[in-house]
Each structure stands twice: as structure tokens, then as C-alpha cells.
Write a structure and sequence with these properties.
Keywords: Carboxypeptidase, Hydrolase, Membrane, Protease, Transmembrane, Transmembrane helix. Belongs to the peptidase S13 family. One of its GO terms (molecular function) is carboxypeptidase activity. This is D-alanyl-D-alanine carboxypeptidase/D-alanyl-D-alanine-endopeptidase. Helix 2 packs parallel to helix 7. Helix content is 25%, strand content 17%. The chain has two domains: 275 residues, Beta-lactamase; 172 residues, no CATH class. With 505 residues, the chain is α+β, with helices and mostly antiparallel strands. A five-stranded antiparallel sheet has the order 4-3-12-11-10, sandwiched between helices. A five-stranded mixed sheet has the order 8-7-6-5-9, with helices on one face. It is built from ten helices and twelve strands. Strand 1 and strand 2 form a beta hairpin. The termini are far apart.
């Protein structure tokens, strides 16, 4: 059976540090937009019938960059002023009513706001609760950044086991583990199992386990145990379609995994491991076997899963080795860029744990909704069946989505700024990398930054853009009940391009 969802992240997961095109938006906004190192700006991004010289007449914030900024640099366009004119509501509405039309059945709702003042410039049933698809991840991103902070990292540890000769691989929430050496410059694969295995062998050789603590000795056989008890409750939610799970849109959620629960880090579609934690543990055991051979140690075949409480409390157990993940901010950016459902659900559970709740799926939902409410966003009529947007039972309005985006761009909680680099850039990165390539949407290429959302009868686009007058706008367009396979993404892209082309007066 064909899966009900339409996958958004079909390009390789970015794991290397990327160059960043820096854009300073308003006096309150500093947004770094992720841009793959070495990418060339295609002539098509200049729009039809425009030569490269035409960019000289464009306002500075919309000129094509001559060079790419360093990922850690602060060079870029100066802050935009609050005196830039705001688009006229009537003129903007006239233009959007021409572009925001469905192809076939269904309807679009939408809203556009001035980011600085919150003034509503376009409103089409913006308070109507709708299926948001992956735009749900915007709520999850904001909650994760508020609870854990953008600089927080997750630890994957090897602990001295409960019996002599045993070690425990303890999952700490990092599902972006790599099988090889740790790569400090990566997001996917920053923490590597080969590095963890080598450190474990060194600890065993040094007698770090100690006979009184259990664990291994300098010689002998090592037995690998797996503790993935950090998360509680069912690893799969009933709100997810079995067809979607079979297609790889989701998998049972565990607190450790390789490649965001993918068999191959370069393939972001297709089935996922049914037991990502055990798959990671077996990969660790294989790496440990290789590392132990030269140290006179052997590793017993097989990995046993231990129950919660069966091993020493990780807060008190002797830590033999440890690797740390990329930061929460970096992981949030990756989640938004690639629209990874699995990573979103893990982020939700880690948010719940950070808020003092158990790490279940229900607690993830409760924690995310509480943070959205605490952010000052109305949660009236908001319903969540998951935190990734895969569930069709989710209900969020366009206004609620734009309020979250506005909090990220212009709100008082500056921790949320860390999410801005993760918004896909029209025609360049992430799930918008293959869009905005025709004459009708070229005005938005490189300028529109937005989170996509796609199910068979649902599409959504929520994000931000600086218009031609230098005004920062936030927007959300959500289509429900659409004809599957119809050309409705083009309507969203044309509408967002209208915003980039304003002044609308």
C-alpha cells in the first residue's frame, strides 16, 4: 500500500559543517542561514530576463552574495531599520488572493504579520485549526530550545556493568550517532561508536572498572549490555499509520540510534531499523571487538538488553567512556532542514525529560504544548497527537504557527534564535532546495526561509522573509483536503514569493 505521507527529506542528511550566509533581520534579529559550502548561486535565482547586473539595483538585503561568509563569521548585511514601510493590507491581500488558490479540491488558510509589530497584513481563516503536517516541528523546536537551551548536548556512555566483565552502553538521547570515529565538525556523526569503543578499551586496560565496581578487567572477555530505558511508554504511537511506519516515515523511538535511525546516513528515505537501539548496540559491540583485539581482550557475541534498574544508576555508576552529541541548537536545525520525524519525536521526549517529566510520547506532547503556552502563544483549539506532525490528528492554526515563528525572529526569548538557521532556504537548502526554480517563484529564491509540511492531502509553509522594502514578515499558509498529487506546492511558493517582492502599497 502506498504510504499516506509524502516524504519531504529526500536528499542526503547534512552532517558536515556548512558555510553560512548571514542575514541580520531587524534590530532584534540575527539569523544565520545554513548554506552548503562551495555552492554556486545559479543564474536562475536572479529571475527571468534579468542579468547579473540587475542585482545592483536591488536593495542590499536582496542582492545576490558575491561570496559565502565563513560559518563562524559575523559579516553580513547590517540590521534592517524599523522605519521600513509596512505592506498595505489591501494591496497585499489582493496579490495573495490571486496566488493562494488550490489546484483541485481543498482550501488554504493563511496569515501574514509584520514581525516587529505583530500587525496582521493578511488573514484567511487564520484561527481555523488545521492539520499542520511537519509544521508541527516548529512547536517542538521552540520547546526544545526553551527547556534544554541551544548549547546542551546529549551523552552516550559506557558504564561498568553489574557483573565482572560486563559493560553497559547507556543511551542518553543521541540518535545521530555515527558508526565510525567522532567528527567534531559534524551534526550527524559528531559522536562516533568507534571512538567510544576505543575509549572503552583504554579504560578497561587502565583498570578503570575495578573489581569492586563490576565491569571488565585488563584481560578476559567483555560482555556488552544495552540500557535504553531513558524513554518510557510505547515506542510507537497509535496515531501513526502502520503504512507510514513501514515506509520509514517513522520507527519505534529509542534514546540512541545510528544516523537518526537510518541504515545508511546518505539515504533519508526507505525503511528504518525496527529496533534502532539494538542496531546501534550491535554496531558498538562490533567496534569494541575490533578495538579489543589488540589489547588482549575478547568480546562475547551478542548484546543483551537490561531492564530499567537492573544496572547501577548512571549518576553513580563508574563511567568508562563517553561521547557527546552535537548541540540541541544544531540538532534542531537539522530537524527543520530535513524534516526528520524520528529526530523530532526524540527531541520531544528529551524536552519532556528536561522539564522533569517522564520520557514518554504523551509527556513529549504535554511538555511541548506547555512550552508553547508559556511562550505566550494561544493554545486554544490546538490538539497534538505527536510532536513531529506525522499524525493526521494534529490540529494547529496558521496564526499559532506564525506566532511561533515570530517568537523565533523577534521575541524576547533569544534562545529561540538558534532555530532560524534551520529554516530551509528557497531554492537552496533542505526541503526547499528543489523548489523556487521557475519564473513564477524566482522572486522568492534565496530569500524565503520556511518550514515545509507535506501529507497526501495536506501541505503547509510557515516562515519568514525580508521584503523588497526591508521589512521582516512572518507567514503561514496551510492547505487541507487537497487533491493528492495536485500542483499545490506551487501556490504556496508563489505566495511566499509575493511577500519577498513587496513593497505592496
Amino acid at each position: 500500500m502506498k504510504p499516506r505521507t509524502s516524504p519531504e527529506g529526500t536528499r542526503p542528511v547534512p552532517g558536515r559543517r556548512r558555510g553560512i550566509l548571514v542575514l541580520l533581520l531587524q534590530s532584534l534579529l540575527v539569523a544565520a542561514v545554513a548554506l552548503p559550502a562551495g555552492i554556486a548561486v545559479a543564474p536562475a535565482f536572479l529571475g527571468p530576463d534579468r542579468s547579473p547586473d540587475a542585482s545592483r539595483a536591488a536593495p542590499p538585503w536582496q542582492q545576490v552574495p558575491a561570496t559565502l561568509s565563513d560559518s563562524n563569521g559575523s559579516d553580513g548585511i547590517g540590521p534592517l531599520t524599523d522605519t521600513a514601510p509596512v505592506p498595505a493590507r489591501a494591496a497585499l491581500s489582493d496579490r495573495l488572493n490571486e496566488t493562494l488558490k488550490t489546484d483541485g479540491g481543498g482550501t488554504f488558510t493563511g496569515i501574514v504579520q509584520d514581525a516587529a509589530s505583530g500587525q496582521v497584513l493578511f488573514d484567511r481563516s487564520a484561527d481555523e485549526a488545521r492539520i499542520p503536517a511537519s509544521n508541527m516541528k516548529l512547536l517542538t523546536a521552540s520547546a526544545a530550545l526553551r527547556v534544554m537551551g541551544p548549547d546542551h548536548r546529549f551523552s552516550t556512555r559506557v558504564l561498568a556493568g553489574p557483573t565482572p566483565g560486563s559493560v553497559v552502553l547507556a543511551g542518553g538521547g543521541d540518535v545521530l550517532l555515527g558508526a565510525g570515529e567522532s567528527d567534531p565538525g559534524a551534526v550527524l556523526g559528531r559522536a562516533g561508536l568507534a571512538t567510544l569503543a576505543q575509549a572503552t578499551v583504554r579504560a578497561l586496560q587502565d583498570g578503570a572498572a575495578g573489581s569492586g565496581d563490576g565491569g571488565g578487567a585488563a584481560t578476559g572477555t567483555v560482555r556488552v549490555l544495552l540500557d535504553d530505558s531513558l524513554f518510557t511508554g510505547p515506542p510507537l504511537r497509535q496515531a501513526w499509520s502502520p503504512e507510514d511506519v513501514a515506509a520509514g516515515e517513522m520507527a519505534p523511538v529509542y534514546p540512541l540510534a545510528l544516523n537518526s535511525a537510518r541504515f545508511d546516513p546518505a539515504k533519508t528515505t526507505g525503511p528504518r531499523p525496527k529496533d534502532a537501539a539494538m542496531t546501534a548496540a550491535e554496531a558498538f559491540a562490533a567496534r569494541l571487538t575490533a578495538a579489543a583485539a589488540s589489547a588482549g581482550l575478547t568480546v562475547a557475541p551478542g548484546v543483551a538488553r537490561v531492564q530499567a534498574g537492573a544496572t547501577p544508576d548512571s549518576a553513580h555508576a563508574k563511567v568508562l567512556a563517553e561521547v557527546q552529541s552535537a548541540t540541541v541548537g544544531q540538532q534542531v536545525d537539522l530537524m527543520l532542514q530535513t524534516s526528520d520525524n524520528y529526530l523530532a519525536e526524540v527531541m520531544g521526549r528529551m524536552t519532556a525529560l528536561g522539564a522533569g517529566r517522564p520520557g514518554s510520547g504523551d509527556d513529549a506532547i504535554a511538555a511541548v504544548l506547555q512550552q508553547v503556552k508559556d511562550l505566550g502563544v494561544s493554545t486554544d483549539a490546538l490538539r497534538a497527537a505527536d510532536v513531529s506532525g506525522l499524525a493526521p490528528a494534529d490540529q494547529v492554526s496558521a496564526r499559532q504557527l506564525t506566532d511561533v515563528v515570530r517568537a523565533m525572529t523577534s521575541g524576547t526569548d533569544t534562545r529561540l534564535r538558534a532555530a532560524l538557521a534551520g529554516f530551509p532556504v528557497a531554492g537552496l537548502t533542505g526541503t526547499l532546495g528543489g523548489r523556487y526554480t521557475d519564473a513564477a517563484t524566482a522572486a522568492g529564491a534565496g530569500l524565503v526561509r520556511a518550514k515545509t509540511g507535506t501529507l497526501n492531502t495536506v501541505i503547509a509553509l510557515s516562515g519568514y522573509v525580508v521584503d523588497a522594502d526591508g521589512r521582516l514578515l512572518v507567514f503561514s499558509f496551510v492547505g487541507n483536503g487537497l487533491t493528492p498529487g495536485a500542483a499545490n506546492k506551487a501556490a504556496l511558493d508563489r505566495s511566499a514569493s509575493v511577500l519577498a517582492g513587496c513593497g505592496c502599497r
